[in-house]
Amino acid sequence: MNTVLSPQEWNFDGVPEGELAACCLWEYARESSSFALASVRHAEMRQEMCSGKLRVPDAEPDPEYAAFLGAYWNSDEGYMRYYETLRHHGGPAALPWQLLQAERRGELCRQVGVHEVSQPLAPAKRRQLEALWKANLAEWEPVRNQPGYDPDDDYMAWEESLPQVEEPGHDGEPHGETIAAFAVDFRKFSDKQIGEVFTAWLKANRPKDSPEPTGRGHKPGDWRANLTRLAVMRLLARFRAMEIVDPRRNRLPDVWETKQFSGSKWADATKWNDARREAGRCFHELFPFLPPGEKPLSWERPAPGK
Model-level pTM? Predict the structure, then answer.
């Protein structure tokens, strides 16, 4: 067993708070064989495009890669800018986060949370307006088509339009976007007054199956904790827990010089094993589109004790 592991692979004390989310995703992606395959395919495609020699697609594409792409594009993460970067450049061949140039790290940090398609609020597309109009017209149209229809006596024309909720765009979504039409009176009301009315509308119309995100699980402390769990998994892929915590063996004394392992709980070997299991869970929580059976590359442990 090769026990050589550079500090950048497990000591994340030096990662600034503002880089924690990007670093955590980057480092967990370095544990994925699927990301390794995807980054190789991306590099091959770029090389073919630069050479002008695009190969004919395989009649029977790699089923493993096809399944990965299918799950990826059928998830919300597939439309996030940073996940696209990870798909193109992630995997074990990528440099550790702490060895990346500062400019590159800043660029990656700015991508976290940026959705390539969705926005919190955006003008409706024409196709969406058409669907909204047709939905609101369904009940009104019979009234308008009655013989002798008089628009001046049409009370329904003065009723508020109703919002429409689109069908889900991919698996795992309860539904799609909510489409609504508004008339904004900028002549008489301030931005604050308009905002207060819109906030009340949001509370009344937010779908019950889409509660307001709380941000839970994405606090700096949570990202750092998940990095520590990753560090544990990588260390336990090379050492048994007792080889680290037992003072008589102490095969990795540098561990005890770090802040991330300064807590007293790390003197207990069972806590190391617990953290390793949590890292495996986190791996699939961060990348839910990965094959269910895929394990992190650092999951295997030195025998005995698998």
Answer: 0.72
